[in-house]
């Protein structure tokens, strides 16, 4: 399995962490062998990018890969006194403006490089193209295609949880990667019959993100109050996750371990991207992901009692772990 660090949490997603905690999170990922880091201007109004860049500054640039995103520009709001209202616990020093024009894409990338303190990133993704699909296809994509042709970028792609727009991009454009959030996991396999085979056919690498579905699969024993896709998890999904956790326990494993190994098992998935609220979560996730997969009997029981689709690829005991995206 290849594992990447999703950096929304170091942008204060849901709750604030200090600069030292953010740096320790990135350091823990590095120490665990993770060399791919995904961020975005949206994450904490640029805070995630600034913190990631600071944490990586002493690392050899050739030894890691970074992706960021375009679509939203950050515009200063000097008179603002409140807090950001979009999931991130940060001061509302900027507001997000959608700009998918060629100029907007280049400006967004330049601003991201400035915040990261880098002269290049390896991948740039159009963030949530479903919000403005025509502009994303007709303006942002050609701009990224041109930047790739100029050698400014190695890979271009999209980052979305919308399978319809993802399939449209994979079909109609020349993407390198597609980051899909929360649509291929133990609880949600809607991408299995749609996006994943299409990506395999078109040779588009899948970056599988939000594989804990917002937190519901991140606990050994799920409980009410956990999140699913940014909202409080419905009772039915808590019950389903709890049933999965019970199967895992019967076979000497845990729900997070099964979630990680399942998410990376599909051959179209190049990298599993996981966020963490601190260094301990990073270390745990890496130990589970790079450790042995759960036994075959666990998957067999999940399939038998209807918790898992029969056509879902299962972890390969012989598949080597990797480090780079």
TrEMBL record:
<dbReference type="InterPro" id="IPR023210">
    <property type="entry name" value="NADP_OxRdtase_dom"/>
</dbReference>
<dbReference type="Pfam" id="PF00248">
    <property type="entry name" value="Aldo_ket_red"/>
</dbReference>
<dbReference type="GO" id="GO:0016491">
    <property type="term" value="F:oxidoreductase activity"/>
</dbReference>
<dbReference type="GO" id="GO:0005829">
    <property type="term" value="C:cytosol"/>
</dbReference>
<feature type="domain" description="NADP-dependent oxidoreductase">
    <location>
        <begin position="2"/>
        <end position="287"/>
    </location>
</feature>
<dbReference type="InterPro" id="IPR044477">
    <property type="entry name" value="FDH-like"/>
</dbReference>
<dbReference type="InterPro" id="IPR020471">
    <property type="entry name" value="AKR"/>
</dbReference>
<dbReference type="InterPro" id="IPR036812">
    <property type="entry name" value="NAD(P)_OxRdtase_dom_sf"/>
</dbReference>
<protein>
    <submittedName>
        <fullName>Oxidoreductase</fullName>
    </submittedName>
</protein>
């Amino acid at each position: 399995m290849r594992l990447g660090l999703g950096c929304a949490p170091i942008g204060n997603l849901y709750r604030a962490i200090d600069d030292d905690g953010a740096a320790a999170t990135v350091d823990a990922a590095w120490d665990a062998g993770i060399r791919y880091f995904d961020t975005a201007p949206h994450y904490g109004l640029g805070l995630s990018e600034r913190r990631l860049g600071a944490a990586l500054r002493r690392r050899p640039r050739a030894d890691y890969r970074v992706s960021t995103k375009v679509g939203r520009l950050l515009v200063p709001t000097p008179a603002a006194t409140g807090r950001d209202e979009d999931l991130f616990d940060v001061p509302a020093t900027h507001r997000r403006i959608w700009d998918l024009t060629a100029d907007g894409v280049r400006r967004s990338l330049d601003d991201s490089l400035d915040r990261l303190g880098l002269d290049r990133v390896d991948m740039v993704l159009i963030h949530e193209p479903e919000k403005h699909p025509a502009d994303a296809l007709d303006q942002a994509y050609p701009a990224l295609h041109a930047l790739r042709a100029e050698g400014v970028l190695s890979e271009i792609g999209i980052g979305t949880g919308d399978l319809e727009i993802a399939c449209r991009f994979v079909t109609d454009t020349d993407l390198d990667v597609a980051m899909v959030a929360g649509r291929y996991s133990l609880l949600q396999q809607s991408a299995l019959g749609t996006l994943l085979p299409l990506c395999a056919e078109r040779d588009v690498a899948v970056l599988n993100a939000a594989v804990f579905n917002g937190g519901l699969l991140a606990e050994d024993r799920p409980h009410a109050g956990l999140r699913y896709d940014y909202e409080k998890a419905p009772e039915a999904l808590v019950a389903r996750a709890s049933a999965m956790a019970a199967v895992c326990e019967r076979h000497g494993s845990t729900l997070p371990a099964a979630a990680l190994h399942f998410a990376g098992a599909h051959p179209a998935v190049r990298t599993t991207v996981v966020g963490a609220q601190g260094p301990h979560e990073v270390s745990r996730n890496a130990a589970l992901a790079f450790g042995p997969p759960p036994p075959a009997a666990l998957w067999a029981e999940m399939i038998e009692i209807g918790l898992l689709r029969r056509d879902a690829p299962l972890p390969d005991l012989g598949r080597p772990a990797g480090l780079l995206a």
